[in-house]
Amino acid sequence: MNLLPYELYTDVPPDAIDVFSAVLDQVIAGDNQQINAAAAAPSPSAELPLFVRNRRGNSALYSGQSFLETGTNWKTVLVAWTGEIVNYDARIAAQVAAATARAGTNHAAPVMNDFMLTEIEQNKAKSLLEEEAAKNGSTIVPVFLYGGEQGRWRAYAEQVLWPLLHYILGEPSDGIEERQWWLDYVKFNEAFADKICQIYTPGDIIWVHDYHLLLLPQILRQRLPKAYIGTFLHAPFPSSEYFRYLTKRRELLEGMLGSNMIGFQAYSFSRHFISACTRVLGFESTAASVDAFGARVAIDVFPIGIDADKVQRDMDTPTVRENMIAIRDLYPGKKIIVGRDRLDSVRGVIQKLHAFEMFCQMYPEMVEKVVLIQVTSPAYAHSAKIEKKVNEIIAHINGTYGMLHFTPVQHYPQQIARDEYFALLRVADLALITSVRDGMNTTSLEYVVCQRDSHGPLILSEFTGTAGMLTDSIMVNPWDSVGVANAIHACLVMSPQRKAELEAKLYKHVTTHTIQAWVSQFLSRLVANLASEDHSHMTPVLDRPHMHAKYTSASHRLFMFDYDGTLAPIVKEPSLAIPHPHVLDALMRLSADPRNQVWIISGRDQAFLEQHLGHIPRLGLSAEHGCFMRRIGSDKWVNLTETFDMSWQKDVIDIFQYYTERTQGSFVERKRAAVTWHYRRADPEYGAFQARECQNHLENTVTPKYDVEVMSGKANLEVRPRFVNKGEIAKGLVHEYKTVDGTPCTPDFVLCMGDDATDEDMFRALRKVDTLDQDRTFTVTIGPSSKMTTATWHLINSAEVVKTVADLVNVTL
After folding, report:
1. What backbone phi and psi angles, to 5 degrees, belong to 409?
2. Distance between terminal CA atoms of the chain?
3. DSSP per residue over 731-768, as a string?
4. Which residues pair with 716 in a beta bridge?
5. What sign does the CA torsion over 329, 334, 337, 341 have?
6. Which terminus of the chain, N or C, has fewer Cβ atoms within 10 Å?
């Protein structure tokens, strides 16, 4: 989590702001006499007086932290920012005023950025925080970030990220301010990484919380490659169509993907995240994982809860009961509808008021029997217009439906005490939550617990993150004011039996799916994922020293390389995947050694391989997955499918053309012995869907009639003769291997590299060749270690392939 559960505050010198303003006015006016008088006045204390108190908000998250420390065997350390020092700016203003007075008119006045906590003050603050934490049995490591305007560290997260995560687009700007916010955001995440690295020991689990720290997992992964990292995003995650508006979208996604597991509040949020990784980063994914940087990142859903036991204790104190009596005395005989929201555009306060006004209009007989008590707290951003609109609607409702003795809407724009809050939830006859976009809504959960005895219904927006949990609440679309108005009326006239039935189901869910259960579930799932990574099909990274030793001692070597995704990275336009000069140089040197036989076995056609690789002496080429071969030392191509009936191609092309017309960005590539449908430039999700449909179509119509097979590659489908594949070619090259003088023999070193399903044919075939020494046979898949493969080793990407080959021939890249 990004904030400690305690906040620092300081006292405010009397008239600090007035003194500051007066001195600046004197400087501007050039009143040296007044300036000198001010300069002679006593300056504020050099040492900042600091105090500590509990922080409001995030109660569920802090309860989860407390549970970890006291209710489990986990040894827990909380690393979090101290937050802004309350009243700090006003205190410093007095120091600025005095320093300005002493500077006089001929010197630049100091500014806030010149002031920060001294080492003595930081040590004092650290001691105060640690002492407060120790009272609750907690161990904390505070992160200090001061200097300049205190809110700068939140700016990017709360002015850019938070709105966009909630589907709010900012106004167009020159981006200068946002760039500075981004730099502060990076520094903020790096400050956390510094603290974590200081206390980290191998085997620790690092749990990162929320959107203020999205870069932290990747920063930690770079510094602590073997660390176990879990991330949970408490906010919603928007559709990839919205997320891609962010200028730093790649950095943020890559930052999160430094985790071993990422958790979300709802399934739709996880689905949007996976889609963003596929569309923005081009990473392969499944419904529950993303393959990133050679690792598989698990994606899961963990609906968060509250500390139900603590809520039940807090809601039944003498102070709460006194407040309940006071509230009932204020509204005798009235049905009380309660709402508590932050005053921003996503909490749906405006929609709620419109719905209440519609209720008053549709059910005039209920007007004097109902009161709406709406409590609002300040928003992170974009609140001025919302506040004005809310006040206008409330004034209109009260002016239209209110009377001298009665006001239908009571608005309290303030933070209310915890006792008052629980009293309000307990006396309520109905809770109305109309968020238009929300992650976790604790008010709804706390209301259910508080209504244990009263059984007040809950009206809940279908767009909240808790909607999937509280399925027995009354679901509404907040944009449908008539529908919400009808729901309000239905709840107010609902029978006691029905209310008790709904409350019983909700109460059971909330009291069993608690914050403690959430913590346990997240950590157990993370540990399970880590265990499966350690003990399942994880393919080890290629042992280069071992391979190099076998290579050096061998005299009959055979090399087989795929092209796309192996020697060259995958690109959206296949014609642009030309070999890098480093690749050409390494292949040239490798094939020049008479002890080596080097082959490129690719799905590419003859023309492409001839154009880009045909000039390399002693390089064997196999095109279209083995349908055509140009042997080492020859310039002639042999067609292995020459006698095969190719009439199947017309049927395949017709089917491919049908899907091309319906899949924007796809195209058909006709080769001499195969036909390929590419959808790399299409929408990733729709392209994959169409590919599955197309493959089913082909397997139901073409393969029963002809001796061909359908192969699914990376963003392509290929149909080719069944009897020719890379596996048969690889097996044939081993059996046909001859020394330089033409003597048949078995290779004593084999290196075979590829990245997709067609290359698995080679890996399987080489395993079945009895004459090969498997300790000298290196099958290497290109991709993450978690990739399902029959290869013995793996490398992350094509760059690592080129580096590996260059090392064999002593080329420094």
Report:
1. -115, 120
2. 42
3. HHHHHT-B-TTS-B---SEEEEEE-SHHHHHHHHHHHT
4. 678, 713
5. negative
6. C
Residue 772 burial (CB count, 10 A): 18
Residue 104 and residue 40 in contact, taking contact as beta carbons nearer than 8 Å: no
| Dihedral angle of Cα 626, 627, 633, 636, to the nearest 10 degrees | -170
Which residue, 128, 17, 143, 22, is CA-closest to 79?
Answer: 143
Q: Which residues pair with 299 in a beta bridge?
A: 262
**Cβ atoms of 300 and 532 closer than 8 Å:** no
pLDDT at 28: 47
How big is the chain by its Cα radius of gyration, in Å?
Answer: 34
Token pair listed for 565: 């995704």
Whole-angstrom CA distances from 509 to 439, 491, 517, 608 are: 18, 20, 11, 62
In the block, which residue shows the tokens 């009206």? Answer: 459
Alpha-carbon distance of 157 to 168, in angstroms, equals 13
CA dihedral 15, 19, 21, 26 (to 10 degrees): 160
Quick count: other Cβ atoms within 10 Å of Cβ 15?
Answer: 12
**CA dihedral over 354, 355, 357, 361, signed as positive or negative:** positive
* DSSP run (H or E) holding 717: strand 716-721
Could you identify the residue written with the tokens 């506040």?
Answer: 387
Nearest to 459 by CA among 486, 427, 419, 440: 486
User: Which residues face 337 on adjacent strands?
Assistant: 372, 430
**Cα–Cα distance, 270 to 260 (Å, whole number):** 15
Instruction: Tell me the C-alpha to C-alpha distance, in Å, between residue 785 and each of 229, 275, 461.
Output: 18, 22, 43
* Amino acid of residue 668: V
| Helix (H) or strand (E) segment spanning residue 8 | strand 6-9
Bridge partner residues of 639 (DSSP): 628
Cβ contacts of residue 602 below 8 Å, gap of 6+?
562, 563, 564, 609, 621, 622, 623, 625
For 271, the token pair is 């689905």
Q: At what angle do helices 318-330 and 418-427 cross, to 10 degrees?
A: 60
Cβ atoms within 10 A of the Cβ of 205, count? 15
| Burial of 144 from C-beta contacts in 10 A (0-12 / 13-18 / 19+) | middle
Contact call for residues 404 and 298 (beta carbons, < 8 A): no
User: Which residue bears the tokens 């350690």?
Assistant: 534
Tell me 491's DSSP state: H
- Distance, CA of 85 to CA of 10 (rounded, Å): 7
Do 783 and 291 form a contact (C-beta atoms < 8 A)? Answer: yes
Residues 6+ apart with CB under 8 A from 33: none
What gap in Å lies between CA 523 and CA 528, rounded to an integer?
8
DSSP letters spanning 206-230 = EEEESGGGTTHHHHHHHH-TT-EEE
For residues 758 and 714, is the Cβ–Cβ distance under 8 A? no
- Angstrom distance (rounded) from CA 215 to CA 198: 18
Amino acid identity for residue 99 in this structure: A
Where are the strands (E) in 522-595, listed by range? 557-561
CA distance 481 to 351: 7
Residues pairing with 620 in the sheet: 599
Are 678 and 666 in contact by the 8 Å Cβ rule? The answer is yes
Q: How far apart are CA 414 and CA 689, in angstroms?
A: 50
What is the distance, to the nearest Å, from the Cα of residue 498 to the centroid of all Cα atoms in its chain? 40
β-pair type (205-209, 708-713) = unpaired
Q: How far is CA 593 from CA 137, 540, 587, 746, in A?
A: 69, 29, 10, 18
What is the CA 66 to chain-centroid distance, rounded? 25
